[in-house]
Specification:
- The structure is a homodimer.
- Helix content of chain A is about 45%, strand content about 20%.
- In chain A, strands 10-9-11-8-7-12-13 form a 7-stranded parallel sheet, with helices on both faces. Chain A has a 4-stranded parallel sheet with strand order 5-4-3-6. A 3-stranded antiparallel sheet of chain A has the order 1-2-16, with no helix packed on it.
- Chain A folds into 2 domains: about 240 residues, Aldehyde Dehydrogenase, Chain A, domain 1 (3-Layer(aba) Sandwich); about 140 residues, Aldehyde Dehydrogenase, Chain A, domain 2 (3-Layer(aba) Sandwich).
- Chain A has 15 helices and 16 strands.
- The model of chain A has no long low-confidence stretch (mean pLDDT about 95).
- In chain A, α2 packs antiparallel against α5.
- The first copy, chain A, has about 425 residues and is of the alpha/beta class.
- β13 of chain A pairs parallel with β16 of chain B.
Amino acid sequence: MNIIEQARLAKTASRTTRTLTLEQRNTVLLQFAENLVKQADHVISENLKDIEEARRNGLSEAMIDRLTLTAGRIEGMAEGIRQIADLEDPLGKVLDDRIIRCGIHLKKITSAVGVIGIIFESRPNVTADCAALCLKAGSACVLKGGKESYRSCLAVVDVLKEILKENGIDENAVTLAERPSHEETQRFMECTEYVDLLIPRGGKKLIRAVVDHAKVPVIETGAGVCHVFVDASADQDMAEKIVINAKCSRPSVCNAMETLLVHKDAAAAFLPRITAKLAENGVTEIYGDEKSCAVCPSYQKADEQSWHTEYNDLIMNVKTVDSVEEAVSHIETYGTHHSDAIITEDDENAVYFLNNVDSACTYHNASTRFTDGFEFGLGAEIGISTQKLHARGPMGLNELTTYRYLLEGKGEIR
Amino acid sequence: MNIIEQARLAKTASRTTRTLTLEQRNTVLLQFAENLVKQADHVISENLKDIEEARRNGLSEAMIDRLTLTAGRIEGMAEGIRQIADLEDPLGKVLDDRIIRCGIHLKKITSAVGVIGIIFESRPNVTADCAALCLKAGSACVLKGGKESYRSCLAVVDVLKEILKENGIDENAVTLAERPSHEETQRFMECTEYVDLLIPRGGKKLIRAVVDHAKVPVIETGAGVCHVFVDASADQDMAEKIVINAKCSRPSVCNAMETLLVHKDAAAAFLPRITAKLAENGVTEIYGDEKSCAVCPSYQKADEQSWHTEYNDLIMNVKTVDSVEEAVSHIETYGTHHSDAIITEDDENAVYFLNNVDSACTYHNASTRFTDGFEFGLGAEIGISTQKLHARGPMGLNELTTYRYLLEGKGEIR
């Protein structure tokens, strides 16, 4: 079926999903988790077909690893779904409740978005995760994954569709796009009639393509050029611990540090020790400005592009700055407003940094790696927003909802 | 100056505006209101030049009326600005404040969006209104009005720029685009680097053009195909009062009713009386479905397009429906999710309607005309959002802000 037709059916289904009770939604989720594990053999056999085709097409082993489902990974997916079932109901929360001046009783309550389109790459576990989050948030979803994972994603979605049918719920509440052409995907991203929100999940190129071509509102996620600024007064042991954690604990993720900024008064002592420690952790490719290169001759010379780069790898930049103001100015110029940290014992500088860095998450004396839905206590997350509208930073269930006004009158006219 | 360069300067200015204290922002606003009145003669003489040119170009008298500034209208603009100064600070509100599991102290606070682009038509009072709202919300703004009002808008903006300079604030916090070409405007709407949010203010065509061409996030405002459903059990006196108010009190606005839905059991009694009353109020062009036309032969036959039309005029549709379910289904199919009302004495039907109509504002026994920032007690409004992301319904100052997380640690790593 054409993806636009799928979206149309999802729109119709969304009229049902948004009125399901919490119990109905949770029942579906728990049965979904259960059946996913029960039918793991089928899902894995479909996954094997994807993997065979991927190998024939010469996909890299890293890509094939991302594509691969095992019994353990399926149990992980099921556990994720159970956790979503455990979360508090994001719908029907009363945000405002009062009598307005004309006498009407106004209530502002959280409600479902409608149809959410998720455009992702090749990881089939995204399917279960997103479908479960959208359903819990009362929305229907249209999932458009990479072609190479189609059979795996379909097997997962079919498990959920079966449960929906058994519970008398429109099975179009979850839909996997049937390998749409580039042109069809384009039309889908323009389809404001049936789709209320698009969330791209994947690398920078995918996100850029969606933002550039969509007419449906998009939430940008994931691009993270994150900074750690080590101030003159920083506790250097703490700074070392945080920099190593921010860069090395998981360099491929968006909340990992890409650029280390060091105050000029700390550079001579801090740069040699952190450089040695980074090398121990596998970071040997470092791009520095002139002053930093003078202290650490092992650095390569950074250029303008370096400061903009999200390496997602054991590579980074180092810049020596004259002041907290210069650090902030660098972050505002080159950052992506994701997560940035200052390490300092100087409260005035900390306050200046927190007030003037305009990022989703700004840290004082902690690692940028904490920017995460689970760490923030939001439960599951669908991504980390780097834009300013609707949601910023980790997006949990609440950020997958909208609100509406209900107004109860007694014949009031204006 | 090129509009992109103007946006770049606004971005720099936004680093200042977002940190201004409430007192600084209010001082600027009050001086702006004062000087606008003091310099009314200059503003009016610039406005006269716009009007002369508009007449030479053959603009309609209705357009010229919208363009015209008088001493009274300028006093009205000043009063609007003073009211904005009076509003509570939308910035720095603490939305969340707790220790997360790793021990970090998390605070979620409201903060400025950055640079807001407003694209509007020919009413010069929009300039003062939008600039004041954006500044109060801590954001810089780039205003792009219709060419025919350029001199008038510039005169208004210059008053504010002067005040900004006198207060030592970057005057690029407010900028009027210098009659950009179509192509430049297009580039502006794509300029995610410097612009954080676009708000189109104007007719349907303008809004559609912005949504279709922008890459910067847009908030759609204003399109309103609003419905009133008169149920079988409705108090027909109340229904008459509400229908007349919803249609006739100000037919040109987006919260006016376009389609009247009537339950089949009420149609025979209600349609003739409301049709007579509507005629008294100037509504003589009515498009009806077959059943309604059978009751009121004065109606013209509605076609598919009628139900989608926002007349903004003394023209409307009437449809007879079999049930509250059919009424909801019609609204979900043809409405714009703006404002819809049910008139009924049946609580079960009221609850069904409120739960199943997915509009920004859903009314029971009251007129749709109340959908308005002032009426809702939000103070000034910048528009009425008909999309589901970020803001829905009347957008006041709070809806012109975003939030960010501040995280205070003691060396935590993940």
